Amino acid sequence: MNILMICTEKLPVPNIRGGAIQTYICGVASLLSKHHRITILGRTDPDLLNEEVTDGIRYVRVDSDGVLDLYVQGVISFLSQSQEHYDIIHIFNRPKLVAAVHEAAPDSRIILSMHNDMFNPLKISKAEGSAAIEQTERIITISNYIGSAISEYFPQAEPKLKTIYSGVDLSKFAPWTESQYSLQARESIRTEHNLASKKIILFVGRLSRNKGPHVLVRAMSHLRHSDAALVIVGGAWYSDNTISDYVAYVRALAVRSPIPVITTGYVQAHDVHRWFCASDIFVCTSIWQEPLARVHYEAMAAGLPFLTTNRGGNPEIVRGNNGILITDPEDPMEYAHHLNLLLSDLHSSRQMGLNGRRMVEQHFTWQRVADDILSVWERR
Length: 380
Hints:
By secondary structure, the protein is an alpha/beta fold. The protein is built from 13 helices and 14 strands.
């Protein structure tokens, strides 16, 4: 079949600027292209050509400036001028695109992948949401939480919903105890940042209040381990090291912490995995209803035990002894309690991390994600 995959307007594909959806598309595209012809439509970027073919996958890029209305114009212009018929148009996370795409390509089957709560009445009208569901053949969600939210807003969507959990690159993210590459990355980054003797606690994500890193910094005051260090990887936005008021607040807290806190700012997407290799424990501090953060998959693949919050889809990834669920994401003491236990017994902590590694090897590979998408495309 001839397939068009439409990314969002915010960040380009390949994921040179980061982004969970962009990483997802990159993870499965080459695997899907072994079975069908793939065109990926996304936004322009100064470092990328407006059109190219790489490894058999066609990339087309249209202007957006990060604005959906402008992006819609580019998408429709592309479809209107295209000489090709697409058997399937797979839209990522933008139900507002469905009506325009359906009008421009009425004979194409539309599949929608939902990575966020974009059917929320605050983001889409009842009429527009209902039309998107009617014109969509299947709706893939990255967690049961997102599927439940959609069916709560639009009960008629229920029969079309299918949860397909995300995946991770098992070679890039690997335990340092099992990978020479990861061990070298671990030693290199620890030496570079004077962390060779430290037990490293890691946060990776955008620095915004709803992501909660300030709570983790405050938890450092309650740690009993003077040989610990906290590393916060991320900026206010993807590819952006702007010092927002919140970033300044987190850094001010970090300066007063009795435990060393390193704030790296934005780290290029192709380098983030090195921090997972270097660390001992991963923490996701989401205060908001997180759809299901992909950093969990990366932490598990790297063999890290993790703490995560009971918000949104995050609990779906805690299965058995691979991680710990925080019940009050705004309580620094709860984080400190569990971190103290993990840091006191690194042998058991590392076993917890390896439990997560075995889990992703079995359930969260990109090959499994691609196979699940193929089953939707091919109506199996």
